[in-house]
Amino acid sequence: MIREDPDLELLLQWRKGDRKAGERLLAKHFAGLRRYFRLKYPDAHEDLLQETFSRIVQNRDEFRGESLFKTYLFRIARYVGNAHVRKHYRQGGDFSPASSSLADLTGRRQSSVLAEREDHRLLLDALQQLTLEQQEVIDLYYWEGLTAKQVGESIEAPESTVRSRLRLAVRRLTKLHQQLGQQEHSRELTEDDVEQWLHALRQELERAPTAAG
After folding, report:
1. The domain 8-212: what is its CATH number?
2. For a Cys staple, 130 with which of 14, 80, 135, 188, CB 3.0–4.6 Å?
3. Residue 64 CA neighbour count, 13 Å, CB half
4. For helices 19-40 and 45-58, what crossing angle results, to 10°?
5. Has residue 213 got a pLDDT over 70?
6. Between helices 8-15 and 19-40, what is the axis angle to 10°?
7. pTM above 0.85, yes or no
8. What is the pLDDT of residues 106-130, one digit of tens each?
């Protein structure tokens, strides 16, 4: 196992039967996983969060420690989210995260439920028009603070692929944001600009009451 994993000690204690260690470990990641689902599926995020934690509890001994435990959690969350899409929006059929967006799948915008500021609503609308694959790397890299290598471990893709997807996602997010707001910028926005947007939006969503989701 990766010795520098900050979750390793709690995980090992949990596996030995220390239930409180397991509770502390899951509580440590509760906010991040809830935010992950709330951004994508605000009407179902609590159920998806519960399903994810249930799978983590059932499969805690299957984690081999070849990546950080945090990346393992988000890998499970991705499986749960994709299963939700197949069940509710594709009637159990197949779909491609590389070409499908939440806006396409749901046929509606959900930003007004999540954000009050107009610029944040525009950003949320733009995010939901990215493909699920692009939104995934944006979420994990900018919101959850994973490195490109760790994002790759979570989505089971090479680091080089993650960096390529991030560049494309940032570029498309910028264009969508401009189009939705009918804005013109004197320069192309950078990754630093996008990070500032997402940081401010994350703070707003964290302040929002649970009922808003």
Report:
1. 1.20.140.160
2. 135
3. 2
4. 140
5. no
6. 120
7. no
8. 766 555 555 556 667 778 888 888 9
